[in-house]
Amino acid sequence: MPHTPHTPELPLRFRSTFRAATAGLDDPSSIDAVDGPAAPEPDDAVETNVDGPAAPEPDDAVETAVAVEQDDAASLLEPAAVEPEPTAAAHEEPREEPALEPQEPAKRPGPRHRAERLRNRRPSGASFRRTIALGCASAIMGVSAFGAVAASADDDASSATAVSANAADRATPTDTIATPDGEAGADDGPTVMSDLSVAAAPFTGGTQVTVTGEELDQVGAVLVGGAPATIVAADERTITFAVPAVDDAALGTTAPVEFTDAAGRPVDVETPTAVVAAGTSVVQPLEGELTGAPEAEVPTAPRTLSLTYTSDPGIDAQVGYVLAYWSSYNSAEYPVIEGYDCANFASQSLIARGWAMDGGWYLDRATGAMSPTWASSTALRDYLLTRTDRATYLDDGQRSLVKAGDIAQFDWDGSGDRDHTAVVTRVEHTETGTKVWVGGHTKDADYWDVDTALATGGGSVSYFSIR
Predict the structure, then answer these.
(1) Which long-range contacts does 50-54 make (Cβ < 8 Å, 24+ apart)?
(2) Collapsed DSSP state (helix, strand, coil) of residue 126
(3) Is 80 strand, coil or helix?
C-alpha cells in the first residue's frame, strides 16, 4: 500500500480483526494513541518478505523482531484513547497472541500476512459434529447398560458365584439376603398336586387310583372314608393305592381321600397347576430375579380329594344272585349236588357276574356234565391259580384287599385241600382290622362272619380276588 499523508503506519504484525480509525482522525498521532507506540518502520528487506517466507536473519535481527512483536501485542491490550466507530468486527473479542520464543533462524517462518486466518474461529460444522458425537456416546452407554442387565438376568449362577467370592473378602457380608425364620433348608415334605385319576369306584373295592405330586415316596398312609387303602406303588412323583371295599350301605356316598406322612402328619393337597397353551407367553416378574429379593408366596386354599362309591354291575349281579338263591336253590337252571354243592353254587355266581366257560371250567346244562374245576373246591383252587388273568390269590394276612364278589375257601382240617368254597358278600374296614362275610350253599348263608366260621370250625381261610 503506498504511503500517503493520511495513511497510518501499521505495525509489523496485526490480527485480521484490526481496523484503523477513519472518522475525523487526520492526525497520525491519534493512531498511536489507540494502538500504542508505533513499531519501527520496517526496512525494505522486511517489507519485501511480508507476503512470503522470511529469509534467515542474523541473531540480532531475530531478537529485534521478537521484541517488536511483543510490543505490538502489548499495545493492543492498552485502553484506547479514542473510540473508533462500532463495526461488526469491533465486537469480537481479540485473542491474546502468546509471546514467541526465539527459535533457530533456519526454522523461523516469516511474518504472517494479514489476509491469512489466525485460527481463532471454530470450523462451521464443529458444533454439529460435537452434538452427533455426544448422541452416539449416550446411545452406546445405554446399550451397554441394557446388555449388562440382560446378562445379569441370564447368568444367575455365575453372578451368584461371583457375589459369594466377593462376600468372602469383605468384613461385613452386606450382600446376604436373610430368609424368613423356619424356611432356610426346610423340607416341605410330600405334596399332592393333582386330582384323583379315578373319581368314582365300586363299593366292593380294589380299584387302583393314582395321584401325582412331590416327594410322594414319603407318604405313610392313605385313607378313603377313614378306611386304610393299600399303597400299591409309590415313587417321588406318583403314588397308586387300591380303594378299600366298604359295606354296601356306602353305595352312592362320597368319601374323603386323605394322605399322611410317616409321622402321621396330614399331607398338603394343592390346586393343580393351570396348563398354558402352546405358543402362549406368560409374563413373569423380574424383580425377584434381578434383585434377589424373596418373592411373597401366594396363599392357596386347602383342598380335599374325594371319591364316590358306585356299584359294579358285574359284582352287583354276582352278589345279587347269591343273596337270591342262598336258601332256595336255582334247580331250574342248574343241577344240585347233595352234601357238597358249595363249589357248584360259587361257579354259578361267576356266570352271573359275566364269566364265560372254557375248556378247563364248564357245565353242560343239557346233560348235567361238569368239569371237576366247576364242582370241587380243591380243583377250583388249582384252576384259579393258573388263571391269573381272572383272579389273584390272597392269604388271610391280605384280608384288607378282599372285596365283595371274591371267592373265599376254607381248609377245616389243615390238610392243604380246600373243604369249603363261598362268595364274599360284604367287607367292612374298621380300626381293629377288616371284617369279611360270605354267603353260599352246604353251609347255607347270606352273611356268614369268616372269623366266626374259623372260631367254630377251625382251620384256615384264603381268598381269590376276582377281576
Answers:
(1) 50/110, 50/111, 50/113, 51/113, 52/110, 53/109, 53/110, 54/108, 54/109, 54/110, 54/111
(2) helix
(3) coil
The dihedrals phi and psi of 285, each to the nearest 5 degrees, come to -65, 140
- pTM, two decimal places: 0.44
> Do residues 15 and 94 touch, judged by C-beta distance below 8 A?
yes
Place of cell 352312592: 252
- Among 316, 334, 453, 324, which residue's Cα sits nearest to residue 343? 334
**The pairing of beta strand 391-395 with beta strand 460-466:** antiparallel
Strands 268-269, 191-192: pairing kind: parallel
Cell readout for 278 is: 402352546
pLDDT band at 461 (very low <50, low <70, confident <90, very high): very high
d(CA 398, CA 238): 23
> What sign results for the dihedral spanned by CA atoms 291, 294, 299, 303?
positive
Are the CB atoms for 293 and 287 separated by under 8 Å? yes
Per-residue pLDDT band for 427 (boundaries 50, 70, 90) equals: confident
Could you report the per-residue pLDDT of 347-392, keeping only the tens digit for each? 999 999 999 999 999 999 999 999 999 999 999 999 999 999 999 9
Burial class (CB in 10 A: 0-12, 13-18, 19+), 242: buried
- φ, ψ of residue 144 in degrees (nearest 5): -65, -40
Q: Is 53 exposed, middle or buried (0-12, 13-18, 19+ CB in 10 A)?
A: exposed
